[in-house]
Amino acid sequence: MELHLQGKVALVTGGGQGVGRAICRELAAEGAKVAVNDLFPDRAEAVAQEIRAAGGQAIAAPGDITKPEAVAAFVAKVRESLGQISILVNNAGVTPERRAKGGMPPLFIDTPEREMHQTVELNVFGTMYCCRAVLPDMVALGWGRVISIASEAGRIGEARLAAYSGAKAAIIGLTKALAKEHGRDRITANVVVLGAVSHEGIAPGQATSADATPETNERLAKMLNAYPSAKGLGRLSRPEDVSGVVAFLASDRAAFITGQHIGASGGYAMP
């Protein structure tokens, strides 16, 4: 399927690894000029270099999306280097501290206040700051795509992930509101909802690490039972299972899809 993204400028947050990296690469392969945002400049630059080496156009646009002044700075850099932004993918959503810890998260009543604040700042305010920074470009162009990555925790709630569940649910509500406000501007807003994803950003030894298999990891074998598709495929979701959905939503093929939260979680939840 030709998605015809040539000439579009895409900004992807958290694009330095895992799902974000796959999204950057897929959008570039479809012809988009890609700005790779990541908190860590070296990761953003590495993905941008990968895209350029494959013949695509990309720049690194590092910065902390929880700081509105940082968002304004890297968005200005993208405009100057690539042009007005017409595709925004809000992918950043897990704090480095939480990813590094791994293991069983605490119950809500035992969750440190700082961890709750970080989760909300990254997922809710970070997404809002990025949307507010790029929507003027989309309105001026009369075309735009806002695609946010959420978790099934935001649709059904997950024990020991109360703050995260609430933050991801907020993204879904925000997206619906933006879809209603900007449909007249030919801007769509949608959410792609994920379950567990195996990728290189997961610490070795965790059940969802990229090299885990049902045969070598007992916990992973149990997890597969929660995902109808995973039981048949013998694996959890991979970044490439997500990036194709995002690229489709970014295209004119999805012009009449807006305000939706679309599960790409192998049937983990079917709301």
UniProtKB/TrEMBL annotation:
Q: Where are the transmembrane segments?
A: none
Which Enzyme Commission number(s) are listed?
1.1.1.-
Q: Which UniProt keywords apply?
A: Oxidoreductase
Top enzyme class, one word, equals oxidoreductase
Q: Which GO terms describe its molecular function?
A: oxidoreductase activity
Q: Does the keyword Oxidoreductase apply?
A: yes
Presence of the UniProt keyword Oxidoreductase in the record: yes
Question: What is the similarity comment for this entry?
Answer: Belongs to the short-chain dehydrogenases/reductases (SDR) family.
Name-wise, this protein is: SDR family NAD(P)-dependent oxidoreductase
Source organism per entry reads: Falsiroseomonas tokyonensis
Lineage runs:
Bacteria, Pseudomonadati, Pseudomonadota, Alphaproteobacteria, Acetobacterales
